[in-house]
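[READ THE FOLD]
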Amino acid sequence: MKKPYLVLLALMLSILSANSQNVIKVQSCSDVLIAHQVDSLKKLYSDDGFVLMKEASITMESEYEMPVIVPLNEGSLYQFVFIGEYTSRLYEVRMFDWNERQVVFKQKKWGDVDGNVISYTYQPRFSEFHMMKPVQVNKQKKKNLCGYVMMFKKVK
C-alpha cells in the first residue's frame, strides 16, 4: 500500500524539478521596421541569384548570443543576414565550423550606415554543420529584443 504513494511522490518531485529549470526557447517576434528590411533583402538577394533556405524571427536578450545551427555543403556559396532591433547600439555575428573554429566575425555599431544589418557571404570547405551566433547590445538591457536571421544559397 505504501509503494503507490512513494511512486506518486517521486513522480511529482521529478515534474517539479523539470519545470523549475531555465530552458532557452526560441520564440518569434514581430517588428514592422525589421519586416520591411527583410522584404527588401529577400528581393535584393533573389534578384542576385540566391534562394532563401532558412529564416527565423527570434526574441533575444541584450548581450546574450542566440546560437543558430545550419547544415552547409562544401563548395556552395551562402549569404547570411542578421537584422537586429534599431534601439540596440552594437550588433555582432560570429560563425563557427564543426571543430569550433571561428570562421566569420562581423560587427556593426548603431551609428554605422545600415548599422542594424549584418550580411556576409561564406563558402564552406567541408560539408558540415556550422553555428551562427548573433548578439546585440541594447542601451536599456532589454530582454525582449527582436532579431531576424536568414540564410540564402546561390543557385544561378
Summary: The radius of gyration is 20 Å. The chain is about 20% helix and 40% strand. The longest strand covers residues 50-60. The CA atoms of residues 83 and 117 lie 5 Å apart.
